[in-house]
Amino acid sequence: LLESLRRMPVSSLDINFIVIVSANEELGSPGFNQFFKKIGQDAHAVFGFEPSMPNGDIIVARNGNYWLEVEAKGIEAHSGRCKGEELNIAHDFIIKFNEIIQLQKKYPSVKMNIGSLKTSKDVFNIVCGDLSCKIDFRYSIESEFQKFLVEVKDVFMSPRLINNEGNAGSVVFSVHDHCPPLEKNKTAVHILESYVRKIESLERRQISLCHSGGAADANYLSSGKSFCADGFGPVGGRLHRMNEYVVISSLATRAEAFANFILTLTKSRGSFYGNPFSV
User: Fold this and answer.
1) Within 13 Å, how many C-alpha atoms sit on residue 190's CB side?
2) Which of 2, 29, 225, 275 is most open to solvent, judged by the fewest CB atoms within 10 Å of its CB?
3) Beta-carbon contacts of residue 59 (< 8 Å; ≥ 6 apart)
4) What three-state secondary structure class fits 106?
5) How do residues 67-83 score in pLDDT, each as one tens digit?
6) 90-121: b or e for each residue (b if 16 or more CB lie within 10 Å)?
């Protein structure tokens, strides 16, 4: 982005640029979400500089994500001597989560993954009395996910095991992040046409507009009245792995393409939803 700005006569352009560098994006940008939404509401266009897809494609839609922590408590006991007074909360949880896996088949736009599952004890001979589970949900349709979430919580709140004294386990939820999906904008193909053509000429490959399964800060910045797309950064791949990489040559080609893109739009008096062009 900064290299793109250096290649533009910014002072002579009738455009307001706001550049945001988010230091805690991988944590869901806690503390900044409402600020991002405000910026997004006031902007006519939002460009995210996350890496493009490994094949060079630009991102015009992203999944949202929902981070739910489930804390469950049962009743501990000596596993050899207990006679029904125990309540193994791990067994209860496993039964419930298997039901949720089956339930997910009703909602094809939702992807679910357990990132962490732990208990306070690390032994063989004590019935599990507590556990904490962090679940990552990814989804492309907000309304469909909300229906799924209601059913997920209903399953977790309904006991599957009860001890011989009539006691059931307890469950507490905490939400650590709720990032809305970035939905594909109807004007994306038209507006990004010159940018795609420029990249294709520089990198000598075909570029498409695609959907990404990951969420990003651009999701918070998107709004119904603004154009929003992502993946304007360099080409890269294998994200969050030891062999993550960036294609060095794409640092220059993407910077040149974006500078050309902005200049082309301003010269043609480009607009977003009838508003004067601004970023």
Assistant:
1) 8
2) 2
3) 48, 50, 52, 53, 182, 209, 210, 211, 212, 229, 230, 231
4) coil
5) 999 999 999 999 999 99
6) bbbbeebbebeeebbeebeebebeeeeeebee
